[in-house]
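Re: the multi-chain job from yesterday

Posting the exact lines I submitted so nobody has to dig through the queue logs.
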Amino acid sequence: MAAREPSRYLARSFSRAILPSARPQSVCFRRNASDDAASKSPADELESSSLATAVPENVVKSFDPIARAKSRKGQLPRSRYQFRSPKYDRGPLHPHQPPPPSDPSSRLFVPGPFSLPRTEQTWESTVAPDILTLCYVHNPPGFKPPPKAPRLREWDDSSPYHKNRQLRGPRGGDVLRLLRKPIRFNNIPVVERVTIHSYVKQAATDNSSWLHVAGMAMQAISNVRVDTFKSKTSVSTWGIAPGRDSVAVKAELRGENMQHFLGKLIDVVMPRIKEWDGIKGTSGDSSGNITFGLEPENVALFPEIEVNYDMYPPKMIPGCHVTLHTSARTDKDARLLLSAMGIPFHGKLVD
Amino acid sequence: MSLTTPLRRSAVTTTTIRTPTTFICSQCRHATLLRRPKRPYTFTQLVTLSDGSTYTQRTTSPLPVYRSTRDTRNSLLWNPSSHKLMNVEEDEAGRLAAFRAKFGRSWDANTPTEEEVKKKEDDVKVHTEAAAAQAAGEQTLEKNNEAAEVEKARLMAEQAKEDQEEEDNLLDLISSFGQEEEAGNKK
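And the result, structure tokens for all chains:
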């Protein structure tokens, strides 16, 4: 059998050679100027000096770039020219423009990601396929969804003043909700960003140490430098006036930081919260963002705060609000995603 | 202070070509400092969950290995069907155990333990089943029993037939849904 194999292949290739090809190549009456040039070998074209010279044996033997680099004591001096991003942005008309923040030479460049977080891997391997399966809706071939009424209603032209008037808002309220698109492989809900926010009420009445401690605690649990915010409104009972004093701290997490934060929040912190049976089912802004609060004693459960708990004055550890911004368009989808990632919900679920 | 922040932001966005529409047109001619973003130092930490599974994470905590005693693997909320976690006693400091070792458990001897409760439930189940079987045996004679079986078989066959018809109708409806409209369009 094995001996017959090559003959079979030969027969196949032979028949292919005999068959007339689609494009006749054999006979060509046209002549081009490049025909003569192609007949020459490329080596003839080049100068003889560069290629034909034989390298002496001792040079070949001494050429060892790896050993040479290893034997070097210090680093080589950097090249003479190095681009440095301008320190100041002098406006769009200035000739010396800073590079975009994604450029490593930019001053605003943030390197990373440096790890592949466990939460992200779980989402990729388990959560996304599960959601895709759960949200699959089968439509038989030839199915057309029944036409829906337009979201903004027309005026009924009963009055001449209806002419050129803007369209009416939806029935039962002025808010146009987000449209829920069917979930396909390319719009599976993901957690896009997480916002941790803390309003420190003693920061307005007492000294600023409350805010400093809150900022350090937020930074420790989130791996992100926090922003502070001043009060915008005036509430005399809380002792705040617009723009007078910083009262709130916020950390916005994206990408790798967010995934690590979610990982420790779900796996380590949430199970240790006493007397807690999940996020309230009524939370959410009905467009796929879910918020919940953590009490000061729950914030103290984070491993980063626990490891040197003595650093923080125990009274000053802040509580916070955590908002999970998902790419889902409805709270129902967001809850599906978050519960698949391990966040429990309790009570009546409002979608 | 509140004025300078939007100006800075707009200056930053000009580095990318897209310029947002600003309705408050206050011209800004000063150069804005491009601050280097500050990031806290992070360590790589090995987290060991209570069931022994491990993973690494980046964290500001300098601890190289974090062992958790309480996490999703051994909390009731995440394992609602776990029988072991259901009856877990709130005895984190070991005080109840120490009390029992010292004074015995005569103070709660009357409350049934877990095994006793289970045994009792099983007993009740067995009793009810036996009673039901007995009642059935008494009521139906053999003759009646046969007749009932025949009747039952007939009813089941009818039921199956009806189900099949219904399914066929449904399939027809589904497959003809789009076609009717198309036919209408052609006319």
